[in-house]
Amino acid sequence: ITLAEGGFTAKSEASWITLGSTDGAKVTFTVAPFTEPTTRTGLIILTRGSETQQVAISQLGAYSYVSDLESAYTIERKGGTIELTLVGDIRPSEVKIEGLPEWASFKIEDKKLLITVESTNVFQREANLTLKLSDLYTKRFRLIQSYGPLGYNAMLGDYTLTYIAAYQGEKKTADVKLIADQAKKGFILQGLAADIPVAFEEKTNTLTIKPQELTKPQGVTASLILASYAGWFPGPNGKATGDLTWAADYTYSATWDAVSIEHPAFPFAPSEAGKTRGHHGLHFFLFEGGSYKSAYSGATGIHTILEFSLTKK
Questions:
Q1: Ramachandran area for residue 231 (φ above 0: left; ψ -120 to 50: alpha; else beta)
Q2: Which end of the chain is more exposed for a tag (fewer CB within 10 A), N or C?
Q3: The domain containing residue 41 runs over which residues?
Q4: 232/167 Cα distance (integer angstroms)
Q5: Over the chain, what is the mean pLDDT?
Q6: Is residue 293 located within the same domain as residue 207?
Q7: Cα gap 211→39, rounded to integer Å
């Protein structure tokens, strides 16, 4: 910038404008590269005494860019292709992706950047990529591939139940099974005092058990209840309690821990309602005349499971 006279100072609040030294009636400045597909404008303010003059500097954005590039892209285990739209006059030889892993590749077709990801048997893998279309356009994004849902059929089969039967009790195990329910949307857990319905959310690999009244065993007149149970753990107030409830919101849920695909594990935890009330597991009992009658052990003898988890064999 050249003025008629010297003796002025120059400043700019635009972070992308860097002012050089003032030499007489001249001041130099440099502008940082701009990779966005827009135009930006900054001011250089020249001051001499009480006089002020503003000079607007406009910078055109990148001519070549990717439309609506996201910060991360996720693909499930079967693999697939991410399609990105290229804008501007871009030669295929100008497109470079740094950090591309061996399980991914890319090509250019009809103004599209196609990134293809292979299938996988690992739980999750990811890469940090840098996309370059020219010296001016550089963008970073993450490529994530996760195993996704295990699938309904993969959940069926034999499991090991790990649990304790009482507060500070020794850890125990039992052989149990998950079999299909009638609708083939959830499961039936077999191997305890009675069969338990188990809900399944396939998208998140989550199992949920709800306290409820179960089908009465043959020859039993009392109601059979599966209840959420405090198990004589110290409660929120520090006092131990044998509190029981079969209210619907006292559920126990477990999401696959993502450690093993072959032997998936599901550590169960109480709902917020259960945590607030200091509950730690499930208890089978007989209920008659509005009162607790007795624990129900069934054929297996397992009437109480606290701090429990399921691991597929």
A1: left
A2: C
A3: 9-60
A4: 6
A5: 91
A6: yes
A7: 61
